Amino acid sequence: MKRLTAFSVGILIAGAAAAQLPKLDDVLKRVESLPRPSASGAAVGSGDARTDASGIKEALAVGTERAVQGLSRTDGYFANQAVKILMPSGIQKVAELARMAGYQKQVDAFVLSMNRAAEAAAPQAARFFGDAIRDMTLEDVRGILAGGDTAATEFFRRKTHDKLYAAFRPVVSTKVDEVGATRAYKDMISRYEKVPLAGSQSLDLDHYVTEKALDGLFLMVGEEEKKIRTNPLARSTELLKSVFGR
Question: Pfam families of this UniProt entry (predicted)?
Answer without folding.
Answer: DUF4197
